[in-house]
């Protein structure tokens, strides 16, 4: 019986750079978020315990920016949704981003490893719940009805990223790993390319405005804006198929 080779699976890692051309800030660029606020103050459990209002205000402003319109998926997000639709094998997008631009572009096989800005988590019920408004101390948990218990459903430094088992299994199996718009400074995402290289199966490609911290680990690095690189790359993958 002729063994029909299954089309390989593709894993795409995205970072803040893919949403930059949609108007959202990155973190470590000169004009990035961490040039304006300190990680310790707004993106750690200690910062939240020290001054919850300050942390809520930081995420309320980012949530308003995302939900009050004007921020739309760009051609890079749309190209990844096209890849999921048209590639015959599995395509999984693993994003470090907490915006909803991949969903709005049409990607459905998606993991938000650092959580989601448009969800909250009750410190009592621990369940993530959709939430587009500001979080106030008076905001009531829809599940348990208590006030002053809602925090952003965002993974802070020192907390455990989400769905790591599923991510590592996908990295192990894929034949193509693409990293887009991430500086390669924050683990575990920064270690994904090494995991792929260790598995010895996949081709690793980086699409970034400039070579990332981990660029030397990739088989190929293309530099430029994601809105230009990603649609061209997706077209190449779809036209060359598994021979890519
Ligand atoms: N197209 C492609 N890449 C871009 C663009 C663009 N238009 N603009 C910027 N970049 C690149 C930058 O060169 C940089 O390498 O995107 C990368 C953004 O890097 P960071 O700001 O460090 O963002 P990211 O890698 O996503 O950060 C990872 O760190 O602070 C935590 O939780 C936060 O998820 C975040 C994580």
UniProtKB/TrEMBL annotation:
<feature type="binding site">
    <location>
        <position position="141"/>
    </location>
    <ligand>
        <name>Zn(2+)</name>
    </ligand>
</feature>
<dbReference type="InterPro" id="IPR003000">
    <property type="entry name" value="Sirtuin"/>
</dbReference>
<feature type="binding site">
    <location>
        <begin position="96"/>
        <end position="99"/>
    </location>
    <ligand>
        <name>NAD(+)</name>
    </ligand>
</feature>
<dbReference type="GO" id="GO:0017136">
    <property type="term" value="F:histone deacetylase activity, NAD-dependent"/>
</dbReference>
<feature type="binding site">
    <location>
        <begin position="15"/>
        <end position="34"/>
    </location>
    <ligand>
        <name>NAD(+)</name>
    </ligand>
</feature>
<feature type="binding site">
    <location>
        <position position="62"/>
    </location>
    <ligand>
        <name>substrate</name>
    </ligand>
</feature>
<dbReference type="GO" id="GO:0070403">
    <property type="term" value="F:NAD+ binding"/>
</dbReference>
<feature type="binding site">
    <location>
        <begin position="208"/>
        <end position="210"/>
    </location>
    <ligand>
        <name>NAD(+)</name>
    </ligand>
</feature>
<keyword id="KW-0862">Zinc</keyword>
<dbReference type="GO" id="GO:0036055">
    <property type="term" value="F:protein-succinyllysine desuccinylase activity"/>
</dbReference>
<dbReference type="InterPro" id="IPR026591">
    <property type="entry name" value="Sirtuin_cat_small_dom_sf"/>
</dbReference>
<dbReference type="InterPro" id="IPR050134">
    <property type="entry name" value="NAD-dep_sirtuin_deacylases"/>
</dbReference>
<feature type="binding site">
    <location>
        <position position="144"/>
    </location>
    <ligand>
        <name>Zn(2+)</name>
    </ligand>
</feature>
<feature type="binding site">
    <location>
        <begin position="181"/>
        <end position="183"/>
    </location>
    <ligand>
        <name>NAD(+)</name>
    </ligand>
</feature>
<feature type="domain" description="Deacetylase sirtuin-type">
    <location>
        <begin position="1"/>
        <end position="240"/>
    </location>
</feature>
<protein>
    <recommendedName>
        <fullName>NAD-dependent protein deacylase</fullName>
        <ecNumber>2.3.1.286</ecNumber>
    </recommendedName>
</protein>
<dbReference type="InterPro" id="IPR029035">
    <property type="entry name" value="DHS-like_NAD/FAD-binding_dom"/>
</dbReference>
<dbReference type="GO" id="GO:0008270">
    <property type="term" value="F:zinc ion binding"/>
</dbReference>
<feature type="active site" description="Proton acceptor">
    <location>
        <position position="114"/>
    </location>
</feature>
<feature type="binding site">
    <location>
        <position position="59"/>
    </location>
    <ligand>
        <name>substrate</name>
    </ligand>
</feature>
<comment type="function">
    <text>NAD-dependent lysine deacetylase and desuccinylase that specifically removes acetyl and succinyl groups on target proteins. Modulates the activities of several proteins which are inactive in their acylated form.</text>
</comment>
<keyword id="KW-0378">Hydrolase</keyword>
<feature type="binding site">
    <location>
        <position position="226"/>
    </location>
    <ligand>
        <name>NAD(+)</name>
    </ligand>
</feature>
<dbReference type="InterPro" id="IPR026590">
    <property type="entry name" value="Ssirtuin_cat_dom"/>
</dbReference>
<dbReference type="GO" id="GO:0036054">
    <property type="term" value="F:protein-malonyllysine demalonylase activity"/>
</dbReference>
<dbReference type="Pfam" id="PF02146">
    <property type="entry name" value="SIR2"/>
</dbReference>
<dbReference type="GO" id="GO:0005737">
    <property type="term" value="C:cytoplasm"/>
</dbReference>
<feature type="binding site">
    <location>
        <position position="122"/>
    </location>
    <ligand>
        <name>Zn(2+)</name>
    </ligand>
</feature>
<keyword id="KW-0479">Metal-binding</keyword>
<keyword id="KW-0963">Cytoplasm</keyword>
<keyword id="KW-0808">Transferase</keyword>
<keyword id="KW-0520">NAD</keyword>
<dbReference type="InterPro" id="IPR027546">
    <property type="entry name" value="Sirtuin_class_III"/>
</dbReference>
<feature type="binding site">
    <location>
        <position position="125"/>
    </location>
    <ligand>
        <name>Zn(2+)</name>
    </ligand>
</feature>
<comment type="similarity">
    <text>Belongs to the sirtuin family. Class III subfamily.</text>
</comment>
């Amino acid at each position: 019986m002729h063994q029909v080779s299954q089309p390989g699976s593709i894993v795409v890692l995205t970072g803040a750079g893919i949403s930059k051309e949609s108007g959202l800030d990155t973190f470590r660029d000169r004009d990035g978020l961490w040039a304006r606020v300190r990680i310790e103050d707004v993106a750690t459990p200690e910062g939240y315990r020290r001054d919850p209002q300050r942390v809520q205000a930081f995420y309320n402003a980012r949530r308003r920016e995302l939900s009050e319109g004007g921020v739309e998926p760009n051609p890079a997000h749309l190209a990844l949704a096209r890849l999921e639709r048209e590639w015959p094998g599995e395509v999984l997008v693993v994003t470090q981003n907490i915006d909803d631009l991949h969903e709005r572009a049409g990607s459905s096989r998606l993991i938000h490893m650092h959580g989601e800005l448009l969800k909250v988590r009750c410190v009592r019920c621990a369940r993530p719940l959709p939430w587009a408004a500001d979080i106030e101390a008076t905001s009531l948990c829809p599940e348990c009805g208590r006030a002053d218990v809602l925090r952003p459903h965002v993974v802070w430094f020192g907390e455990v990223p989400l769905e790591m088992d599923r991510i590592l299994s996908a990295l192990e199996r894929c034949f193509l790993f693409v990293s887009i718009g991430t500086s390669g400074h924050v683990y575990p995402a920064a270690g994904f390319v090494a995991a792929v290289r260790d598995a010895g199966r996949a081709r690793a490609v980086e699409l970034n405005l400039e070579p990332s911290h981990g660029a030397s680990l990739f088989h190929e690095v293309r530099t430029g804006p994601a809105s230009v690189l990603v649609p061209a790359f997706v077209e190449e993958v779809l036209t060359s198929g598994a021979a890519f």
